[in-house]
Amino acid sequence: MTAGDFGALERVGLNLQAVFDIAALPEGLRTRLASLADDPDRYRQLILIGNAGPTLWASVKAASLDSTDPIDDFSTRTVDEWFAAHYGNTPSQHLYPGDAPLDLQSLGRLAGWHHSSPFKIGINARWGTWFAYRVALLAGTGIAPTPVSQGESPCNRCSAKPCTTACPANAMESGDFDLPRCIAYRRRAGSACAQTCLARISCPVGTRHRYDEEQIRHGYGNSLRMIEWYAAGAIHRG
Ligand code: SF4
Ligand code: SF4
User: Fold this and answer.
1) Is residue 51 a part of any domain in this protein?
2) Is residue 109 part of a domain?
């Protein structure tokens, strides 16, 4: 096995990479991956790639893609180019972005990236909540698997929990995250969370890696459009 050379990904902000040997994954996940693979015998590894901090967004803007989903398109294209440059015609299959039912947060936990925050966005001690999953692929590679560093959740040591009081919907007041309450607030006219999450912004962990305002507006604007799209579908189906 050889160490992965992720330099081309690092440079554009795809700076989180985790390589798993499929044979070493928990049985349930192995079964899930086998059911998603076009031919399970072709793949030995699962490669998970993410971004942390604002660099990826700067790279996406610089690429000026004519796309309604520029982050996904840029990430997929960049990973494909990286993979072809290093592994040629080695078999690979994208699982994400796409419709494959893959629990990215579970993979993030296995990689040591993800702890659950009170508002259910992943958090870790270094990046805070300012990271995201971008690409997952099956591959016939023999890259040295990534050592996992399982740190403690920063939320365990955060006694003030400013995220809970910053939320204008009080969506965490019961101790559990009330997603319908969050969504209802976000859909209100004049909502302060139409294009951001005040709870996320208030978290003191990893603030120097915070996405810039434009990326935050882009991400939350997209998610609100998806919420309205689903709501319109429910109304029409009803
Ligand atoms: S404010 Fe505290 S409890 Fe809330 S997400 Fe950040 S670290 Fe966790
Ligand atoms: S988006 Fe707004 S309403 Fe929803 S959890 Fe974040 S702060 Fe609360």
Assistant:
1) yes
2) yes
**Identity at 56, one-letter amino acid code:** L
Q: What is the pTM of this model?
A: 0.91
Domain that holds residue 104: 7-139
Together in a domain, 76 and 178: no
Atom of ligand 1 nearest to the CA of 123: 5
Structure tokens at 68: 């309604």
Question: Domain total for the chain?
Answer: 2
Ligand 1 lining (C-beta closer than 6 Å): 117-118, 123, 154-155, 158, 161-163, 203, 205
- pLDDT, tens only, 70-114: 999 999 999 999 999 999 999 999 999 988 888 899 999 999 999
**Is residue 98 located within the same domain as residue 180?**
no
Q: Pull the structure tokens for residue 85.
A: 């440059």
> How is 113-173 classified by DSSP, letter by letter?
--EE-TTS-EEBTTTBT-EEEEEEEEE---BPPPPP--PPPGGGG-SS-HHHHH-TT-TTT
Task: Report the distance separating Cα 94 and Cα 228, nearest Å.
Answer: 28
For residue 68, pLDDT beyond 70: yes
